Amino acid sequence: MSDLLTVEGLRVDYLTAGAPFTAVRDISFQIQPNEILGLAGESGCGKSTVAYALMRLHKPPALVRRGQILFEGRDVLSFTDTQLRAWRWSEVSMVFQSAMNSLNPVMTIFRQFHDMLRAHGPITRADAMDRTAEMLEMVGIPADRMQAHPHQLSGGMRQRVALALALTLLPKLIIMDEPTTALDVVVQREILQEVLRLREKLGFSVLFITHDIALMAQISDRIGIMRAGEIVEIGTASQIVTAPVHDYTRSLWDAMPILANAAEKGPAHAV
Ligand SMILES: Nc1ncnc2c1ncn2[C@@H]1O[C@H](COP(=O)(O)OP(=O)(O)O)[C@@H](O)[C@H]1O
Ligand SMILES: [Mg+2]
């Protein structure tokens, strides 16, 4: 099977006053079609830097210094702005930790769907409303909520809206950066179930980023463990949970009592 995404030797520096700081050192991984790859590691290890660089959403002082990002064999780092605009949302989209970073607080939900749809091709208002209704219902939100503003929804509902928005143009890859970190455990579980269900239905790949490796083990097919800007270990979820090779991975498990349990059962795909 050919890779959906290939990342080869990626390095990202922050050019701060004084010496540049290398946040992502030399990272390589692949994501297959329909695969959920988890990227786990402690806060500050460079996960979000990877996510933003992959979508070319990184901004100064961040600079991609080295490496290659191939999406279906196409060289993302050489895309023009026009190519990038066409590519984002339609082929790869992103759900951020806080829906407030994905959603515009002063615009109704419908307006945000409408703007995104219009940016990718001509569409009538009526068709945009139908598509918005369909997507909201797909993530369990009544269609009439499209007239609400984000602040009128609960945190869990906002995150569902962000997920629906990310899925609207049927992208092949969704990058989720701590998508459930701000939510309570019950809502977190519901959203993850939703992601697994939608993946079955629509068949997309996910790069799932979190500092919570227990959560990661429940949703991922493969897991990469990041530390200080590098991937120290990558393998199937069951290998990373039950037979981690790297000391650092083991220490992450040991730091999590809940994982003793998960390790016995192996990664569960029903969350
Ligand atoms: N704008 C920035 N300027 C300078 N350093 C940054 C900036 N953003 C992030 N960093 C640094 O890069 C490292 C990785 O950050 P980040 O990718 O956000 O980690 P994570 O998402 O794993 O918590 C951290 O040490 C952080 O302090
Ligand atoms: Mg982060």
Automatic annotation (TrEMBL):
Show the GO cellular component annotation of the record. plasma membrane
**SUPFAM superfamilies, sorted:** P-loop containing nucleoside triphosphate hydrolases
Domain ABC transporter residue range list: 5-253
Which UniProt key words apply to this protein? ATP-binding, Cell inner membrane, Cell membrane, Membrane, Nucleotide-binding, Translocase, Transport
What is its subcellular localisation?
Cell inner membrane
- GO MF term list: ATP binding; ATP hydrolysis activity
Pfam families, from UniProt?
ABC_tran
Source domain of life is Bacteria
Alphabetical list of SMART domains matching this protein: AAA (SM00382)
Please give a single GO biological process term from the UniProt record: transmembrane transport
Membrane-protein topology = Peripheral membrane protein
Entries under PANTHER family matching the protein: ATPASE AAA-TYPE CORE DOMAIN-CONTAINING PROTEIN, OLIGOPEPTIDE TRANSPORT ATP-BINDING PROTEIN APPD
Similarity field: Belongs to the ABC transporter superfamily.
Q: What is this protein called?
A: Oligopeptide transport ATP-binding protein OppD
Which organism is the protein's source?
Tritonibacter horizontis
Q: What is the lineage of its organism?
A: Bacteria, Pseudomonadati, Pseudomonadota, Alphaproteobacteria, Rhodobacterales
Gene that codes for this?
oppD_3
